[in-house]
Amino acid sequence: MRPFPLPDASRPPGPAVVGVIAVALVLGAMALALPLGRERPPVALIGDSITWGATGTFREVLGDRWTLTIDGKIGYRVGQQLPAAAQAGRLPQRQVVINLGTNDVTNSDDDISSIVDTLRGLLDALDGVRCIHLVTVNERIEGHGPEAGPRARAFNQALRDVAAQDPRIDVIEWSDAVAAWEAANPGRTLTSDSIHPNDDGNSLLASLYRDALERCGS
To answer: I need a surface site. Which of 63, 130, 166, 178 has the fewest CB within 10 A?
Structure first.
């Protein structure tokens, strides 16, 4: 029997072989890349102009780990984002961050209890979400009358009370973080107007979000 001829190592592979190898490499790279994209858990960020203004920072800081849906509407109150919550509740969101209440505190006369009742309705739309994060509003609000600070404090305490009643919910303490940072950095501020974060504020807010999302896991 004649032995099967061994390939000549000195001869370069033909064009057909090179083409097969190239296709295999491309397919292999795709096979590695696609699962990584699919493994990023979906997260919805719902808010007002604070969320809208930090969109770019959120995508930069959080987008490598989570697939983000960001819905920030300028001037919106809690009740106006009920459709966004309903949409998030219909989608397979693993986690939702809600940063609302500033406009309710500063631009309305509604009782805090009424605002929180509306918030509960928003949370009801997120029944299937694994983790929900509520963000406190800044309590050091200026230029909105003497009642803005007390209303902010009452709203934040109501958020904590709501979170204490549902193990899925936690509180991202934005107001406390602002106070601590500004105390440690005299003469500097994290906001442009005591409400809207500047670049430093957006970075800190995004890092607080990341910490909260990581606590919930993937």
So the answer is: 166
Alpha-carbon span 66 to 44, nearest angstrom: 10
- Give residue-wise pLDDT tens across range 97-121: 999 999 999 999 999 999 999 999 9
DSSP 79: G
CB-count exposure of residue 73 (10 Å: 0-12, 13-18, 19+): middle
CB 198 within 8 A of CB 192: yes
Taking the C-alpha atoms of residue 33 and residue 53, their distance in angstroms, rounded to an integer, is 31
Residue 105 to residue 191: CA distance in whole angstroms? 17
Give me the count of residues in the chain.
218
Q: Closest Cα partner for 46 from 77, 85, 4?
A: 85
3-state secondary structure 150-162: HHHHHHHHHHHHH
Reported as type and span, the H/E element at residue 205 is: helix 199-216
Quick one: what percent of the chain has pLDDT higher than 90? 80
* Per-residue tokens: 38: 């699919």
Map out the domains of the chain with their CATH numbers. Answer: 41-216 (3.40.50.1110)
Cβ 78 vs Cβ 115: under 8 Å? yes
